[in-house]
Amino acid sequence: MKPDRWLDCRVLVTVGTGGVGKTTIAAVLGLEAARAGKRALVMTIDPARRLADALGTGPLGHEAREVPRERLQALGVPEGGRLAALMLDTKRTFDELVERLAPTPEARERIFANPIYRNLSDALAGSREYSATEKLLQVVADDRYDLVVLDTPPAAHALDFLDAPRRLSGFLDGQFLKLLLHPAAVVGRASLRLFRSGSEFVLRALERVTGLEFLTSISEFLLAFEELLAGFGERAREVARLLRDPSCGFVLVAGPDLSQARRAESFWERLQSEGIHLVGLVLNRVHPWPGAGEPPADDAGEAAQAERWLATALGAADPGLAAAPAASALVSAARAQAALARRDRSVRERLERALPLEGDAFRAVPLFADDVHAIEGLARMGREIFGARRDV
Amino acid sequence: MTETLDALLSRRLLLVTGKGGTGKTRVAAALGVLAARRGVRAVVVELGDSDVLPELLPPARPQRRAERGREPQPVAENLFTLRLVPEEALLEYLELQLHVRTLARAIVGNAAFHRFLDAAPGWRELLTLGKLWHLSSLETRGGSPRWPLVVVDAPATGHGLSLLSVPSVVLDTVRMGPLRRNTDRVQALLTDASRTLVLPVTLPEELPVNETLELRVRVRELGVGLGPVLANGVEPALGLAEPERVLAALARVPRAGAPSPFADPDAVGAAARHRLARAALQRSFHDELALGLGEPPVELPWLAGGVDDRAGVEALADALSGALQ
Fold first, then answer.
1. Is residue A113 within 8 angstroms of chain B, CB to CB?
2. Mutation target vs A (from B24, B97, B168, B207; most A CBs, 10 A cutoff)
3. A211 and B19 in contact by Cβ < 8 A?
4. Are A306 and B260 in contact, with CB atoms under 8 Å apart?
5. Which sign does the torsion angle of CA B261, B264, B267, B273 carry?
6. Model-level pTM?
7. Which superfamily is assigned to B5-236+295-323 in CATH?
8. Model pLDDT for residues A250-295, shown as the tens digit of each residue
9. Quick check: ipTM above 0.85?
C-alpha cells in the first residue's frame, strides 16, 4: 500500500524489535497525518524526553497532550490538522480498568490492596502489552481523533501484545483457576470428572512444591479479579477484533543489519499467520552513499590511487596543508561509508525478495548524521517516507 | 571507579542488560569468550525468547533436542552456552522437588495447568532466576564450582527489572515452605555484589542513554550490585586534523579527473561530513552519559565487520579486554 494510503487507516501500529526507531517512526506517521489534515494521536511507551521537547507538548503522560498550533503551522499542517501524543502508563491503565470493571467499591479496594496486584501488576504476563491494547480501545472510541498511531512495547517477543488479551482471557476463563478459586465445588457432570481429578492431583502436587501459602496468595489475588472476568474477556475480544480489522494497519520497522532483517522476516510470517494487515515496511537508518550512483565496490588498489590523486589535488588547493594524511583519512572514510551502504543495500534487497509487498510500500529512511528528534527532523523523515510532493 | 576485567570475571553471575538493540547478546558472548581465554569455565545463558547465541557461538557438536534448555552445551574449551526456557526449568524444578519424573511430567502436561501458567504472574522470572542460582551452586566432585562464571543475556531494561524484582515480591507474600527457602537463596545470590553484578550495555544515543541512567537507579533500589556501564558502538574518529580546512581545500579540488569514486571530491567530502557530524552527535550523548554516571563509561568501538559470528565475537572480546585494562 502506498504510504499516503496508510494514513487512511483508523489505527496504525508500528512493530519491530527494540532499538530500530519505532517510536520516532510512530511520531513521523502522526505528523504526516496532521499534514494531511487529519487529527492524529501518537501513543508511545518510550519516555523520549527530547521527542516530547521537539513536539512541544511538555512531558508526556497518561493523558494526551496537543502539539502547539504554531509548531504544526510552521511545518505546513493545514487548519484542520492536529497532533497529540501520550505515554502509556501500565499501572494507571490497569487501575482504570479495575475501577471501571469492579462491580462494587469493595471489590475494587480488595484488588488495590492485594500485595500481588500492587507489586506485580507490571509483571503479570503481558500486562504492559495488555494495557497498551486497553488504552488503544479507549482512544479509538474517542471521536476526537481520526488516526491513532500505536508504538508497541519493546517486548523480547515484540508481538507478545497480540497474544496478551487472548492469554489473559484464556487464563481468567480457565478451569484451573476455577479449581483454585472454588476447590470445594468439585461435584459436577461426569464428563468433567476425569479432568477435575487430574487438575486436583496437579494442585496437590504443586502444594508440596510451593507450599500452601503461595497457592493461597495467588488464589486470593485471582479471587479478587474473578468478578472482573467477564469484563476482561469482553475487552480482550474487542481488541482482537480491532487489531485484525481492515481499518487497522501495521507498519513494520526494521534496521538494516542482517540479524534485524532476519527478525523482520519472522515478524512478517507471524503477522501473516495472525491475519494482521501489514501495510508497509520502513527500513530505518540506512547508510547513504553520498556520491553519484551506486556505492562503489571496494578495491585496495583503486583506493591507494585515489589517495595519491587527492593528496596532490589537496596540496595544490592549499599548499600549507598536510595533504597526505588528510587524503588518507578522507579515502578511508569514503571506503567505510561505501561498505556500509553496500551492506544496507544487500539487506534491503533481501527484504524486498522475502516480503511480497508492493514496491511503494517499502520505504527506506537514511541515517541522518544530525539529531532527528527535532520536529524538523521528523518532517524530513516524513518526506523520505511519503515523498516531497505535499510539501509547501 | 571502573572494575578491572579480572575483578569482573571473578564474579559468579553477570547479568548483561540494556535497551533493545544495544548489543547485549553480543557483549554477553564476548564476556564468555574472555573468561574462557583466561581459563575461567563460563556458561553464557540466553533466555527463552531469544535464539541468537548458536549463530554467535556455534556449539562444538550438534545439540540433541533433549539437552536443550537443561545442560550447557560446549562451544570451546571452558566455554559453554545454554538456552534457558522457563517451561523446561519448571519441569526440572518439579523433578528435583518431587523426585519423580513421571509425576513432574504429568503436572506440566496438564492442559488446564498450562492455560493457568500462560498468564500467571512472575513464575517465569522466578524459575529463570532459580535455574541461574542452580547453575552457579552446582559443584564438581572435588567441591569446586562447576560453573564458576554464569553470564546472562538478560532481558531488555523493563523486563530485566521485572526479573530482578520478582524474588522480593515472593518473599513479601510467602513466609514459609520450600518456595520461601529457594527464593531466599536466589535473593541472597542476587544481592551479593561480590558474586552478582548487573552490567548495563548502552549506545551513545538519546534513548539508550536515558534508559541506562534510569536503570541504574532502579537496580540500586533493588539492592543489586552494578558493574561498569558499557557504551557500545562508538564510531571511530575520522582522524582528520583541521577538518574544516581540509574540507575547504577539498571544495576547491577540480571535479574532473578523479580516478575513482573514492577520490570524487563531492562523495568524499559528503562522507567525511557525515562521519564528523555522527561523531559529534555521539560525543554529545557520551558526555551526557558520563555526566549522569559521574565517570566515563567503558567504550566499545563500533566494529565495521559486524558481530554476527564467532569471529565477530572474538573481535568484540578483544575490544572489551582492551577497554577494561
1. no
2. B207
3. no
4. yes
5. positive
6. 0.84
7. P-loop containing nucleotide triphosphate hydrolases (3.40.50.300)
8. 999 998 887 778 888 888 888 888 888 999 999 999 998 888 888 9
9. no
